[in-house]
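Quick check before the chapter quiz. The format below is the same one you will see on the exam, so make sure you can read both the input and the output lines.
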Amino acid sequence: MAGSMTSMNRPFTLPKAHLNLLTVLGVIALVISIVQTMHFAEVRSGQGAFQSFCTVGKTFDCNAIDASPYSELPFIGIPLAAAAAGWWLAILVFTLLARSQEFGAALSPAILAMTGVGSIFSVFYLWIMIAVIKIGCLLCLGMDAVNFIALGATLHAWRRQVGENKLLSEAKTLEPKLTFRLEPKLPVIGTLICLLITVVFARSQLEGAPSSSELKMRTASILGSTPIDINVGPELPSLGNSAAKVTIVKFSDFQCPSCRVGAQSLHPVLARYSDRVRFVYRNFPLDPTCNRIMKSSLHLAACELSKGSVCAQAQGKFEAYYEKTFENQASLKPGSAAKIAAEVGIDTAQFEKCLSDPSTSDRVIKDIEEGIRLNVESTPTFFINGRRVSGALPPQSWNELIEQMLKQAQ
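Here is the expected output.
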């Protein structure tokens, strides 16, 4: 009858254009989260570079983020990035299925809800980055942007369909009621399967890593040990806050593979605690050329590289020399010190003069003698506020040790 209105229910469905956008966003999110999961595994294993591809000065440092406890799911040690990968894998699958009439009405509300949940997590972790860690992460920001754009797209589709219903109602031809028919069974099962896939992938990346119980036992043993008095004078090469209440001293050999792992595990943590921790470097080359307790030479360039660190410090380039030397460890040989110095911008003429200066050798020998006094038998050996740490530790252990030391120092 003319002028009458017919009541009908119209389920919320995402238009094809919105589904296309969400599919593209899903691919981008999946790539970001997989890359970040692999990067997390590198940082936690001590195999990552000192400066990652997403390090921009002191402001943005993905290494520092992935070394922090906020980058993993509590209790199970799986990176948050792996959970994000599973979440977005599910959304990606749902956007492909929602193109059919059979699944469109059932999955569109689920996609809207999932993009909303993802955006809530993004807001929370943005606050963690800004207020707690105080270091940015470009990969994380990329994921946040994807979450916010996806939510905006799904909300736009919802508002547009509500507006269309209003126009139809005002025309007095139809009175369609837009329904939000959330059917949880398919979305929940699909999401759980996708999360399981990415958790298995994350576990494969972390294969061989010590369990959380093993790490806790080792950390407790270190904290329960008796501190030793160690010289940490201002003349020693150091990073961080010189007035910090927590000091980490490292006895190390530049050609020692475990020392490289120890450096690359600790230094992302130091980036986060740069205002509260001081890191002090002491040379302990495993080379009889300068180390009197060594009977045979394990590392032919170790003494020369140790002297190079002293000369780099004299020119204010210790940190750059330290990182570059460990990054090039596989190719180190006699004569490498000068090459590394040139690569990091050290005056080579002044550097060569310093290498041949007897006082430089005296500095290295002084470090070695201090290590002998402290019964250093292997490298790396650390002392955190005087408590011995033998061998490399993963970032999560350093986080716990530093937090406990900071509490004790209050």
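If your answer matched, good. Residues 212-409 form a domain with the Glutaredoxin fold (CATH 3.40.30.10).
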